[in-house]
């Protein structure tokens, strides 16, 4: 990533921002030391890099090693001092309004998350405690709006997609906007931007004011996938598992577009949850879609699900090829069923409390070489458990591809090894090779992709130490 021009500036929030205590400011501003300061610095740098075409966290951090952010407490609130900040975040010396909003959203979320963890009010060893923690984080971000009927559509897919696929996501977003539906994504480029961009036009045509473009991310991802400028609500969850739970608790239906390892992780996460016996009758509209050029990709992903998880998993979603209007119609009809179901059971519209999420999907997975090699990937496992372990495997690949810590681990110890029986490893290997051929692992035009993993058929290797 080439060195870009930098600027020094002081920035105050516009509008209301919950004031920070002197102790909270001290936590953040301790002379560049401490985990929370470094976390906020990393997120702030990513937000200020909105529009950059790098998906490598290490590259971005290395390009701005001298970037600093200092937090000052004032009687009227908080002021940020930015030193050697990316100049592209400013116009005529003034920070772009959307960037300013997201910057202070990051400050809000990181301080609140840290304080909630230290308060020990939540039992993060139990499923109920983790769900309550996610609820509190979303409520603090003012994401939860009681009484609003179900209309949030989550869109998942890759940041590294073709022009044809990107244009298709905009068409689908446009159809969603025309039907007064809001869009929630991972907030970055590619599929995370296209549906939002299309929805803004659909909302404008329908004279809808206050359309929601919700972006959910986490610190390890935001550094690699800077928020796109359409996001008007940014929430930073503490880890990938809390982020994924936030998606399925807040969203009322999900559309999956073409993507790579990250998209496969999200897809397997959702399938594993929907396949839990407690969720058998719970309506959750799920559509896989893409243009004609992506038909082979969608068919391969569908075949992978059949080979590993079975026909029951395949029955939980619908595939629609090259028909944006049909996707939006399917989703709108599915949301009517969600609305009826929740009314009958007195469940909240703004948070899906009835959805059962097994603890195996909630606890953070540390993608170390030992943990990746120890994953159980066997066809004889219950489908929801196999889905959970496959999700962890893809989570590790995402970490090795784009997260700073994962990239450094690969540099030190070489590729991860993923072990399992042939019935799982063969379709997994074929899917990953297809992702590489189709340039779905990294941004097009960059350096040739170097796999951060090695698929091994057979028993789990015994690791030394």
Automatic annotation (TrEMBL):
Keyword Hydrolase: yes
Record has Hydrolase as a keyword: yes
GO cellular component, one term: cytosol
Enzyme type, top EC level: hydrolase
Catalytic activity reported: IMP + H2O = hypoxanthine + D-ribose 5-phosphate; UMP + H2O = D-ribose 5-phosphate + uracil; GMP + H2O = guanine + D-ribose 5-phosphate; dTMP + H2O = 2-deoxy-D-ribose 5-phosphate + thymine
Residue ranges occupied by any Pyrimidine/purine nucleotide 5'-monophosphate nucleosidase N-terminal domain in the UniProt entry: 10-116
InterPro entries: LOG_fam, LOG_family_nucleotidases, PpnN, PpnN-like_sf, PpnN_C, PpnN_N
Gene Ontology molecular function, alphabetical: AMP nucleosidase activity; pyrimidine-5'-nucleotide nucleosidase activity
Domain Pyrimidine/purine nucleotide 5'-monophosphate nucleosidase C-terminal per the UniProt entry, residue ranges: 336-456
Enzyme Commission numbers on file: 3.2.2.10, 3.2.2.4
Family annotation (SUPFAM superfamilies): MCP/YpsA-like
Keyword line: Hydrolase
Family per similarity comment: Belongs to the LOG family.
Official protein name in the record: Pyrimidine/purine nucleotide 5'-monophosphate nucleosidase
